[in-house]
Amino acid sequence: MKKLFFLFLILTFTLVNRAQSPEAFNYQFVARDDAGNLIVNQSISLRISILEGTVSGTVVNCEIHLVTTNQFGLATLQIGNGTVISGTFNDINWGSDSYYIKTEMDPLGGQNYQLMGISQLLSVPYSLFAKSSGVNYNAGPGIDITDYTISNTAQNATHSGDAVGATNLSVVKLQGQDVSTNAPATNQILQWNGSSWTPSYIYSSVWSLSGNSGTNPSTSFLGTTDNAALNFRVNNQKAGTIEPSGSLFLGFQSGYNNTVSGNCTGIGSYSLYSNTGCCNTACGYLALNSNTSGQSNTAIGVDALKKNTSGAENASSGSGALFNNTTGYFNTANGFQSLYSNNSGYNNTALGHGAFYNGASYSNSTALGYNANITASNQVRIGNSNVTSIGGFAGWTNISDARCKKEITETVPGLTFIMKLRPVTYYLDQEAFGTLLNTVSSMADKDFEENINLQTGFIAQEVEKAASECEFNFSGVDKPKNKSDLYGLRYAEFTVPLVKAVQELNIKCTSQEKLIVELQIKLEALQKEMDEFKKQLDKTAER
């Protein structure tokens, strides 16, 4: 025969019948075989013994139960109502000792019992214990006890104390203290004011989700009373923090990892998400999102300074401004995607939509205007290649103070250099500009018409060659500083060799004028001699 296992579930301890029938308590179990399969719809025989004191103690009651399991292997019996083998169930003194249940079973319904186990009754059948405890209860005034029933025989008696009255009681005191007779208003509760319990609004401890009234601006507030941050959450995620250190974060997971910094302001989802630096201000979705130790940065706009980590004292205004900056510092960008590609560059300034878009590590450069491009450090660009006029009411002034100059020489070629120059007219090739500058298509000026303006000037490479042939280090040629940079000409610088050429021409002219004067004197002397000679000839002829 297979060994069987049971899962016993004691559900209730209750007297089956208090008077005529023996007391009993319900016992429910599920029967399984050794393979764990349920024994369903089968008549089985159980021998239940109650042992006193230990698992091998005296049998104070033993009885047999013949039960049938249901389709779930579940069966219920009442210990105390089985066929008695020995002992008296009703005589068990449940409060005198501990008791154990010994379970034996024959799954075929016979008397070939196998031990299933012995377990302690950890919960005493209290109704049985109470009956056998011998305790007697005496009824007080207005109380009647009959068998197991306790009833009130003075329901309309007059009461005094905290509650007064007869049929309808009124609470006039709490813990012996007077309760106000004022009727409460909506959202009011009883609060102790020092002398009585009085209806009061709950603003001092709880704020209503549907609005509050009766608040006092001088004492009512939403916040903390200790040196701890005030936090707000959305979907149980951090969505706002006001810190005692002076920092303020407002927006989903704004300042999420902020720990030790102070005086920071983050407004917008994920702004200053990783921040640990101080004195940063971010306003916009993902603004200064990756910033860690960087400090004193200002980012206004979606993705502004998004990738900054340790860069400091940068200011960006506009969506995507200084987007890729990580360690660069002292940069100022104002405009959509201005200084967009800067990574480690410093001391740069960009003003305008897409200004200074390219360049990851340039320094001390300035770009002013829509799509103004910088191609090297220490460079200033105003406008883009579409601009046709830059001016004002005064000429450009270059600083030229003798106190700030040294190693002054006059080795400037004049006519020799000027005569090598080739003046030309030309049109700008916008497509070539876009390719060389790697200008993104979204920034191209669709309204600009190619070749709209004929321009006059020189070719920088030709000027460079002419200067080289003259062994002239000409500052009028702005040579490329890197492979992305372009040639340029500073036309104002041409004034110097032109002046030199004029001076050289003046020397030549002065010398020629002197020679002319000398020749004129000689010519006049010769003319006089010829005139005198002619007179002599005439006299000779007359003779």
Present the secondary structure layout:
Elements: E1 4-9, E2 25-33, E3 43-52, E4 58-68, E5 74-79, E6 83-87, E7 99-106, E8 114-120, H1 126-132, E9 143-146, E10 149-152, E11 163-164, E12 170-171, E13 173-174, E14 177-178, E15 188-192, E16 197-201, E17 230-234, E18 237-242, E19 248-250, E20 265-267, E21 281-283, E22 298-300, E23 315-317, E24 332-334, E25 349-351, E26 366-368, E27 380-382, H2 415-418, E28 424-426, H3 430-437, E29 455-457, H4 460-469, E30 477-478, E31 488-489, H5 495-542
Parallel strand pairs: 19-20, 20-21, 21-22, 22-23, 23-24, 24-25, 25-26, 26-27
Antiparallel strand pairs: 1-2, 2-5, 3-4, 3-7, 4-6, 7-8, 9-10, 11-12, 13-14, 15-16, 17-18, 18-19, 28-29, 30-31
Describe the structure.
This protein has 543 residues and is of the alpha/beta class. It has 5 helices and 31 strands. The protein has helices at residues 126-132, 415-418, 430-437, 460-469, 495-542, and strands at residues 4-9, 25-33, 43-52, 58-68, 74-79, 83-87, 99-106, 114-120, 143-146, 149-152, 163-164, 170-171, 173-174, 177-178, 188-192, 197-201, 230-234, 237-242, 248-250, 265-267, 281-283, 298-300, 315-317, 332-334, 349-351, 366-368, 380-382, 424-426, 455-457, 477-478, 488-489. It has an 11-stranded mixed beta sheet with strand order 17-18-19-20-21-22-23-24-25-26-27, with no helix packed on it. A 5-stranded antiparallel beta sheet has the order 6-4-3-7-8, with no helix packed on it. A hairpin with a 2-residue loop joins strand 9 and strand 10 (149-152). It is elongated, with a radius of gyration of 54 Å.
